[in-house]
Structure formats: C-alpha cells, structure tokens
Specification:
The complex is a heterodimer of chains A (223) and B (263). Chain A is mostly helical. Chain A has one domain. Chain A has nine helices and no strands. The longest helix of chain A is centred in the N-terminal third of the chain and has 31 residues. With 263 residues, chain B is an alpha+beta fold. Chain B folds into two domains: 110 residues, Ubiquitin-like (UB roll); 129 residues, Alpha-helical ferredoxin (Fumarate Reductase Iron-sulfur Protein, Chain B, domain 2, Orthogonal Bundle). In chain B, strand 1 and strand 2 form a beta hairpin. In chain B, helix 5 packs antiparallel against helix 6 and helix 5 packs across helix 8. The chains are: A mainly alpha (223), B alpha+beta (263). Chains A and B meet through helix 1, helix 2, helix 4 and helix 8 of A and strand 3, helix 6, helix 7 and helix 8 of B. The structure holds FE2/S2 (inorganic) cluster. FE2/S2 (inorganic) cluster (FES) binds next to loops of chain B.
Amino acid sequence: MSGNKGLLKSSVAKKVVMGLTGLFLITFLIVHAGVNALVFLNDGGQAYLKAASFMGTNPLIRAMEIVLVLGLLIHIIDGIMITAQNRKARPIAYHGKGASANSTWYSRSMGILGLLLLLFLIIHSAHFWIPNRSNQFATGHEIDLYERMKFIFSHIWVVGIYVGGCIALAFHLLHGFKSAFQSLGLNHSKYNPMIKTVGMLFAILCPLLFALMPISMYFGFIQ
Amino acid sequence: MSSGNMNLTLKIWRQKNASTAGKLITYQVADISPDMSFLEMIDVLNEQLIQKGEEPVAFDHDCREGICGMCSLYINGRPHGPKYGITTCQLHMRSFNHGDTIIIEPWRAKAFPVVKDLVVDRSAFDRIIAKGGFISVNTGSAKDANNIPIPKQNADEAFEAAACIGCGACVAACANGSAMLFVSAKVSQLTLLPQGKPERKERVLNMVGQMDAEGFGNCSNTGACEAECPKGISIENIARMNREFLVASLTKKEPKNSGGGAM
Ligand code: FES
C-alpha cells in the first residue's frame, strides 16, 4: 500500500479530517458568537451592525466565507462516510443495552447531533444569511440584520428552535472539542486536563451565549 | 454458601453457522453457586442440555485464568459482563442476583463473523498482526541488561501496550465496531522500543491498511474500548497511532530495492 493512497482512504485520515474541520468550525463559532454578543451592549444594535457589516463586506472575510462553507461541507461529507461505514461494521445490533456504562450518550450520537445541527443551520441561514446575501447581490446593500433579528425572535416557537439548536451544539462540542485533539494525535497527560476543561467551558459557554440572544430579544431585555 | 445459590434465566444467542440467522433462546439454570465463574455457569447449562440430548452452547475459552484472551461474551450489553478490567472467565456469579435475567451474545462485528452460537472468528486480528506486529531482525540470544538503553518511561508504556491479549472486547464495546485500540496497542508496543524502529513507518501503514480492509469501523473517540478493556489499555495508544500514521504517510519514501538492511 503506498503511503499517500493510504492517507486519503484510511480510517485514521477520516478522523484527522473530521478533527481539523471541526476545530476550524470552532474558530468560526468564536467569531460568530463574538460579533453577535455586541447586541448585549443594548445600544440599539449600533456596535453589532458595524461589526456585522464589516464581516459582510470585507473582501478577506468574504473569501474566508467560501473556505468556511467548504470546511463545513467536508465535515458533513466525512461524517456521512464515517457513519455509513460504521453502520456496515456492525450489521447485527446487540440486544443487550449497557453502553452507558462505558461511554457518554452524546459521544455515541455525534451523527444524530450533527444532523440536528444541519437542520438548524438550514433554518438559521434561511433566516439571516441567505436573505442578506441575496439582497447584497440584488441591490448591493445589506439588510438591517438587527431589525431582522428582533422580528424573527418575536415568535416563541422560533426561539424554541434556536434554543434546541444550541443544546444540540453544546453536546456536539462537549465530545467534539476534546475528540478533535485525540484524533490529531494530541494526547498528552500534561495537556489533557487543560483540553478537557477548555473544551467543557467552551461547549457550555458558547451555545449559552448564542441561546441568550433570541431569549433576550423575545423577552425584550434588548431593545 | 448454599443459601446464596441462585436461579437464573439466560437468553443466549444461538446460531448454527455464519450463513444462518441466529436468535436469542431462553434457558433456565438452577442452584448456581455464587463462587462459580461465568463460564462454569455455562458449563452447568451445557451439562443439562447434553443430558436432554440437545446441542450444547458453543463458546470460546482456554486458560480460564484471565491471561489468554480467548473467552469473550457480550453479557447484558457489556463485553465481559458488568465488571471493569476483567475477562469473562474471571467474572463470578456473585456479580449477579437470584432471579436475574442475563442476555448473552457473541461479539458483534462484520469483521468477527459468528462461527457458531457465541464463538466468533477473530482471525482478522491475526491478519493485522501478520502485516507488521513483529520485528524482522534476528535479536539473537538474550542481551545483557541495559545493553540497549531504553528510557524507563518508554519501557513502561511499551509494556502496558503489550499487555493486550487480543480478546476483541474493544471491537465489541465500540459503537462503531472499530479495532483501533487493539491495533494501536500493537503499533505502540513495537514503535516505542529501539528494536521496532526500523520498520516503524511500514508497520503502522500496513497494519492500519489491513484493519480497514477487514471492515472494522471508524473510531469516534467514545472511549468505550478503554473502559471495557480487561487489561486497561489506554486510548493514548490510539492518539500515538494517529500520529505515527500521519507522519509515516507524509514522509515515507518508496523503497529503492538496494538490498540489505533490516527491512
Ligand atoms: S479463557 Fe483465557 S482469558 Fe478467559
């Protein structure tokens, strides 16, 4: 087996790709949460709109947006391939159920959690990203994303969907963050506790910050 | 101790051979001593079946001392049953209660086809070993101690990896049917030691290649393998194998066929 062919097809490579794209998507989450958190300044969306329009018009960031979509697609396709192969690896399911004694349910449900996140992402981009970009394409101007947020988050069921999406994200990250390091071979007794702690904090705080936005808007904490 | 003896309901996977479908069959056993090992309990059942003229349950076992890795059994949803860090032959009936129902299944993986009942064919592991789980240098007779300097930490880690008995509980426990823990233990054991260094790159590439070819699933780092391993093999070994594989894939040169050398 030649080394390079092995690298592309092998199970180890699929994990590495999963981990790399996962960490890349985490950097996106950080930026996204950071920009959106500006709404908590409660200044009528001024600071938020400034940051959002920078993100929406800066050529470098727009180029990164393409890389982001590619990264997301690779993460999804890799995940589908891995899940399909794993299904085949155990054609007959066990009758006895005892897996909770050896692993967490969310570590065993990354595919399902990923699917939920994908569904959420479709709804979320239909709310903001797609209308905004198509308006830019048609008129050259961005829509007022802050007004749109207030409108979208005035429906309780939408807020419910967003909170649900954030919960799915939290569990996906709770396993995904530390799992990415393990897949990349970065397992060292000196750094493991730090990776675990940072991963857990991020998996809780980042989705919490996201979830607080629709909640605060719905209840009028942010005007 | 007889007061502690128990009656149990067993649901055991019966399957004639690899090409026929199997199913769970219910059996009753009575007066089982808590001091019996789990395998002795099945021996009791088999005596009953033989006396009734029925086919006994086929299951794997050999040393019954927890050292060979031959016994298997997926008991109540866990490889080697409800305890951690032991094989099924070291599981005792005191871990169960009078009146319990116990579901007993074979290891389930495409790469471990059922031979009969609870016996599976684990020769996929042998084929992975044959791809690189060895060193091809003549090590001669035993060297003087400290002739080859090996850092204590490497020696310890190699020794811990070498504790793997190849039982396949990692595959059985894994939600994905992945053999990463087994393969990584074998890769680590040799890669950490000087004698294993000459074939370091081919070894990891070939063993991972064979593992994939056998149809094992992809690791998703659930850690179930580590939790269920009777020898406590750590998933640190999987991270090491991932590193070794990446480096080997990116840096290995094609051989020039110039002869000589340990490879
Ligand atoms: S029979 Fe040898 S380890 Fe159980």
